[in-house]
Structures are given as structure tokens and as C-alpha cells.
Fold:
Amino acid sequence: MRGDPEVHELIAASSLPEVLAQLGSAPGMWMPIAGGTELMVAHAAGRLNTPKLISVWGLPELGFIRVSDDCISIGGGVTFGQIRRHAAIAADFPLLSRAASWIGSIANQNRATLAGNIVNGSPAADAPPALLVYDAEIELISQRGSRRLPYSHFHLGYKQSVLEPDELVLALHLPRRFAKHAQYLRKVGTRKAMAITKVALAGTAVVDDGIVAEIRLAAASVADRPVRMTAAETALLGKKLSFETRRAVRKALLNEVRPIDDIRSTAEYRRHVAANLLDEFLNELTREGSSV
Amino acid sequence: MTACWPHIELTVNGQQAAVEVPPMKRLLDVLREDLGLTGTKEGCGEGECGSCSVRMNGELVNSCLVPILQATGARIETVEGLAIDAELHPLQKAFLECGGAQCGICTPGMLMAATHLLARNPHPTMEEIREGLAGNLCRCTGFIKIFESVVAAAAMGATHAR
Structure:
């Protein structure tokens, strides 16, 4: 049943403090809406349950990309179109640029925002694996003040997060120390464009003299939330990329993932493909390690 | 009883327009129902098919996903703005000549996505054309004739977007 626009209130505010005041005045009453690539779909299908929406689209306080010596900060309202066209992000965080290019179509990328992709809380979302392997920090803001925490602590479960009803995502902060890392990101979907992830894996690593000196792995659609693969990381860290290590890592990953059967794929397929993606990344690392 | 809806002004194809409609009404519906611009089509209504593509402040968007309140003060370009009087836009000519249009439902969105692509990249490669139109689905042509239309339009110098 088609949603009726007359039953929804939508207001716009001209500044971030105004939005935060509105959210703070009646926590849980107002739903922020940015590019609408998720909420307007729910609205069209008559599944938008919240009657009151407040637009955060175009707020300058959320629309910045700030590049400093040791960090790139991306405002929550920045679109994936802006992210993929940003030269400094492409140079230091190529996995995030690539993930941005996979989000829907050009028209979707011009509206979908970084904060929207995160707070929507989909385990299949494209940006989170890249953010996780870059040790991103997330900054939340409300009338009560702001707080900053590792992005890996943000999601608590399926569509559950630490975000309070009066809070917005102000920014993601990415430390600029991954430019020399080996980097990997692969998404498996039904087709190349406009497809939602069946399973995706991201990784950043440093292999020094054949030993894995640094390793970060993260995956989408293998659990109820985007996750770091910490057991697989532990099985790799400080080890040589030997046959035994690789067998142990594969086992750790298979034990660690908790995928489900759903409309897009099966748990068994996802487990198998997640392990194969990890193999592919380790093959790349082995080749790079041997060439050094 | 008629509710009191906000007064929203925008520019459509260079013309000033004003509507008083529910703020959650989709830009697509405002264009078609309130402004009589039925060139823009609805396909899926969920941002997957691209048939409702228009440009908003120079960016390609799916008008089915834009609540009209967010288009306040915006510059909107629709397929109706491509031709100048009876003179078709080079992209429209190319679609006609190359068989890029068949049933016509996807065509306005294809034209707007292609306009957007050529405005940013006057001489795209085939790969760039495929990516630029990846969000626009066609069930008639098999896409190849559409890609060829864009190549032909680019060769004619169809880079201008008004």
C-alpha cells in the first residue's frame, strides 16, 4: 500500500543547532532524513512508521571534508558522490572510494550520505567494512555535547547502535596511516551495479620480512552487523604466511562468521565465499611479501 | 477541510514555479501532478530503475526519492527542458537515429542520466557510459543501442546542459 505524504510531517531547519534542539526537545519523536534513499523507499511502500521527520539535507555543518596532516574527517552529511570524487580520500583511503562507487547508481550516490549508510544499520552496507579496516572513529553530537568513539564500537546488533534518539552522526575521522598498507576490498553481489551485498570482505595489512606485522579484516553480511574479524586477525598477527597459518586463519574465520539465510543468499554460501575472499587477500599478501 | 501546506518555490527548466503541497510529496509527483510535466516517468518508485531521473542543482537524482521540501529553492532540469522549441537536443536526435528509444518509459531518465554524464565528461569511454547509465534500466533495447546513442551524441558535441 502506497504511503500517503499527508500523514507525515516534514520540517527543515537552517542550522545544526536548530536540528539538535528539535531532536532534544522530544527524543525519539523526530526522525532525521538526509538524502532519503532509504526512508523515501520505506515511505513509498507505506512502511515509514514515524510520522515526524526533520530534514538534515544540505546542512553545511554536516557537509565538510577536512584534510589535516594526520587525519581526514568526513561530515555525516557528505554524499558518496562527493566521497568518490575527493582526491585526498582516493589517495589515502582507496577502499572507501571504491565502496562509495558501489553504492547504488550515480543518482543514489548523489543523495546517499555517509551517516545514512551507517545509522541505517544494515549488515550489508557498503561503507562500513572499509571504515572498520581504517580504524575510523565516529563522532556523535547532540545538544548535550559531542562524543567520539571507535567506529567498531558503534553497532550493537541488528539495526541496533549506541546512537541515542537525540544524537546525529557529526563526522567520521580516518587516521592517515594506511597509505602504505596492502589493501583489499571485494563485494560479491548478484550483478556489478545496483546490487546489495551477499558478502564483502575488506582488509588492510603490513607484511614485514614475511611476517604479518599489522592486519585488519572486516566483513559485511556475515553477522547481524558490520564486523571486524578479530579471531582471524589474531590467527594472522605476528605469523609467517605459511600453509599452516593460512589453514588456521581460514578455520578462525569460519568459526567467527555468523551469516544467515535470506532473500539474497544462504548462510553456507556466505561462509564459503567469505573464506575464499580471505584466501584471495592472503594470496595478494603472499605475492607482495615475496616480491619485497 | 484543506490543510495548510508550505509554499515551496523552485526553478524548473529555467522557469520559476511555486506549489503548496504536503512537504513529503515526492518531487516526481509534484512535477507530474502539480506542474503538468509528465515527461518524467515512475518505474519502480524505490530508486532502482532510474526512469524518474532528473537533475537537481546540477546533480542527477531519482525524483521518486526527493521529498519536495528538500527541493525548496532548487534548480530542477527535466526531459522537457532538453529540446529548444521544436529543435531536439543532440542526445534526443541520437536516441531517435540509433534506436535508443523503444517503448519510451526509460527514455526520459536515460536522457537525463546521459545529459548528466556528458556535462561532466564530454567524451566518455564505453565503460564510463555503462557506469553513468548503470542506474537506468531498459527492458526493450538490450542497452547496446542506448550506449551507441550516447557515443553518437558525444561525437555531435552534446555536452551542453541548460
